[in-house]
Model the fold of this input.
Amino acid sequence: MSGNPQVAGVGFGLLAYGMWGFFPLFFRQLSHVPPLDILSNRAVWACAFVAVLLTLRRDWRKILTVFGTRRQVLMLAVAALLIGSNWLVFLWAVANQQVIASSLGYFLTPLVNVVLGLLVLRERLTRLKWISVALALAAIANEIVWLGRLPWVSLVLAGTFGTYGLVRKQLPVDVVSGLWLETLAMLPFCVLYALWQAEHAHFVFTGHDLTTMCLLVGAGALTALPLLSFSAAAQRLDLVTLGMLMYINPTLQFVIAIWVFGEALQAARLLSFGLIWCGLLVFSWSAWREYRAAGRSAKGDDQPVDERA
Done:
């Protein structure tokens, strides 16, 4: 992908979001393994895989720089807690036939980002963005009224991933180094969990058949590869294009949940998706208008100033 940077960026974006979208198919093969066991193995093997990448790239100096800043270490620990919680709930959703709820959560994420920008970063919302947020709230209210329960899987996935993005945005740490540090921060909890389970004659990291062991090890590599592809896409694409590609992940999850896993889609939940999709359409239109306006403004700034004016 060394030709047109835009084409290469789209290719990397499709690869990243495509892999994330097919995650339910991969992790369904591990449905016989408890979600916490999968999470522990995923963290350990991802940490090992990324350590190899750091060694090949000779990037360990960046890690030492991060350790020298207490604030960055604390924020990475928070990021690890958020992404670890996100992984765990996603794994639970896959194991318990809740992939539709999972896809709804990832569709909600861009709108959660808008709310976080309003509450945390004090960003001002345009009228269109307010409409998109209102449609998302209507979808959640619909879930509560017609399905009789809070869509906690969707909300936790959207909330943890959106907040994780907010935390990582404020950290000057590259994707590879950040992932290694986040998985490293998870390891003490994974080890404590493994020791606790060993006392009950259940072994988290050993005792699996060959196929299961290969899948658990592969989960570590699969954790890193989409992030690397996403990083390559982000370097080549504007945020609007990257944002449009983001919908590939939950769309694939939605299709897989219905057509492969045979999950039932109630009419009430279809209404929720309809409201979310309308909200995303309004949000995307708003983002596109802002992007065009910024482009025109930049071109205007580049025009030579007429000193006679």
About this structure: Residues 267-302 form the longest helix (36 residues).
